Amino acid sequence: MEQASWVPASVDLDRPSTARMYDYYLGGSHNFAVDREAAKAVEHVFPGMSGAARSLRTFLRRSVRYLLDQGIDQFLDLGSGIPTVGNVHEIAQAANPAARVVYVDIEPVAVAHSTAILSANPLATAIQADLRDPASVLENEDVRRLLDFDRPIGVLMVAVLHFVPDSDDPHGAIARYRDALVPGSFLAISHATVEGVQVDAEQDTARVQDVYKRTESPLIFRDRAEVAKLFDGFEVVEPGVVPLSEWRRDSDDAYTSAYVGVGRKV
Ligand SMILES: C[S@@+](CC[C@H](N)C(=O)[O-])C[C@H]1O[C@@H](n2cnc3c(N)ncnc32)[C@H](O)[C@@H]1O
Question: How many Å apart are CA 167 and CA 170, to the nearest integer?
Fold first, then answer.
């Protein structure tokens, strides 16, 4: 098994991670043989996976630009992943050089790589934490140092909540983040779905879920009503919780196997 210099000691090289599989789908180089094997098993069932990952990234870009247009200049990116092109701090600081970003991920490679590329950026950082434990995020000293909770913040949960089953109480966690935010703050969510897939695709869906069972983050799908429920306490902005391609579309991207939305705390 390869062991590059950027590999943190805490990484389990025998178990695939969703962060590194996602990096593989996006054409990145921060993944290991075990991740590539799992990612290829997903692609075998669902050859569109790389395209899906790229489509999900378009929502990240579109939602960050939307929040910037609403005057948001601080971002808390929960489940931020391994940096790739078009990271939140790049989009935000291109529009507003004073924008502040804290990346949060549970996976050590994602955090190590993020920290490395942000070393010369005093207004952005990355921390390792579990979003299911809001206190560990909200009380983190870097989070408190960089983000001003007396002003609106954009919280991003992009392509991550489908790794948080109801048994882990995503609603309770989101409520904790919501309660820490002032009105005028926002929450952006994208979430994988199989609502509307053909019956003969159900077996393929189960096979994809079987691959993710090898990771620490089993993949779960939610329908539109379930994704809308994640916005409890937020006012969902137009066009509502919709398939990814219908949300303030700025390209010919037609991917629909994810529901997305942005909510405003009122
Ligand atoms: C599919 S990637 C999405 C990355 C990024 N948000 C994007 O849109 O490109 C999901 C990320 O969520 C992270 N993740 C999964 N469960 C998490 C948790 N409980 N707390 C923090 N991060 C988590 C994974 O490590 C992975 O980096």
Answer: 8
